[in-house]
Amino acid sequence: MSDLVIVLTTIDDERADEVAAALVHERLAACVNVHGPMRSTYRWKGAVETEAERQLFIKTTTSRLAALEARLRSIHPYELPEFIVIRPESAADEYAAWVRQCVAGESSS
Questions:
Q1: How far is CA 32 from CA 16, 40, 41, 53, 89, in A?
Q2: Is 40 within 8 Å of 101 (Cβ atoms)?
């Protein structure tokens, strides 16, 4: 099994690209997909809220997970940001190697 993980988070539309770029620039993620606008309905502090958001799919490794979570919490505008880790059953060896190189600072790609 690969050490590749995908982290999901949601964020307001205005900050999505900024946060994605910061995570890749700081080598906490090899790639962040910013998905199209969506509406989220959720319960928060006893009230039902509806907001425009973007879903971020963050590709990283298990060794960078703690640093990624700490940094995401420090730059995320939400009081309680979503942080869901998905561990793929498998990943192409070449792709997993690329992710590892990117977050380790060794990639020329």
A1: 10, 20, 23, 15, 20
A2: no
Give CA–CA dist 55/38, Å, rounded.
8
Give the domain ranges of the chain. 4-104
pTM, to two decimals: 0.92
Of 66, 71, 62, the residue nearest 100 (C-alpha): 62
Q: Which H helix or E strand runs over 32?
A: strand 31-34
C-alpha torsion 66→67→68→72, nearest 10: 110
pLDDT at site 107: 45
- Which phi-psi region, left, alpha or beta, contains residue 43 (left: φ > 0; alpha: ψ -120 to 50)? beta
Q: pLDDT of 14-67, one tens digit each? A: 999 999 999 999 999 999 999 999 999 999 999 999 999 999 999 999 999 999
Q: What is the CATH number of domain 4-104?
A: 3.30.70.120
